[in-house]
Amino acid sequence: MLYLCSDPVRAVRAAGPLAPISPPRLKAYIKDSAATTVLTDVTVFDGTGGQPEMHQTIVITDGLISQMGKTGEVKLPANATVINGTGKTVIPGLVMLHEHYTIPCPWIIISMWPEMPFFLPTDVPGSGVTTSRTAGSIEPQTDSALRRMIGEGKVMGPDMDVTAPYIERAGFDIPSINIIRIR
Fold first, then answer.
1. pTM here?
2. CATH architecture type of domain 94-180
């Protein structure tokens, strides 16, 4: 499956195989779901730190890159959907390793950090993020459920690596944080 951002400021990215996305509201994010898709005349940053490769054609078959080369030199499969990528950039999926799916609310008497399960993780694919790792969690059960729902194609989001809940010593006046007693 291929996700393309319609906003030209955002990068175009090809993602690995994902579960089918069924809810109609998520189909708005899908530019193309053909078995074979070709991006022509794109600029490719390969993530190695090298110079970008200009005027490239990328063939994506069953969600994986099967061919890449100079535009005009790559044979286009007969059954492919061809997308003109002139002026677009292709990057590898970004991996975010320190994600908090919470929002601080310091404007109230006590500090609250509510989970934002259907805002933060569902927004990051549009920025090129394909994998994220939580950095502790207020509600690990919510993060785990969200990870499952993404895997089932019920909501849009990155592949998630969910970590443990926060555990703090006494003195943190954040009601949603687990407190342990230190002897």
1. 0.64
2. 2-Layer Sandwich (3.30)
| Secondary structure element (H or E) that encloses residue 24, with its range | helix 24-27
Q: Which residues contact 108 (CB under 8 A, 6 or more apart)?
A: none
Give the CA dihedral 19, 24, 25, 26, nearest 10 degrees: 20
CATH class of 2-91: mainly beta
pLDDT band of 16, cuts 50, 70, 90: very low
How large is the average pLDDT for residues 36-41? 95
Residue of 128, 129, 123 lying closest to 156 (CA atoms):
123
pLDDT classification of 29: cutoffs 50, 70, 90? low
Domain with CATH 3.30.110 in the chain: 94-180
* Ranges of H-type helices in 110-168: 120-123, 140-151
Residue pair 18/1 in contact (Cβ under 8 Å)? The answer is yes
Residues with Cβ within 8 Å of 153's Cβ and at least 6 positions away in sequence, in order, are 18, 19, 20, 21, 22, 26
Nearest to 85 by CA among 157, 158, 14: 14
Q: What radius of gyration do the chain's Cα atoms show?
A: 20
- pLDDT for 133 beyond 80: yes
Q: Where in the chain is CATH 2.30.40?
A: 2-91
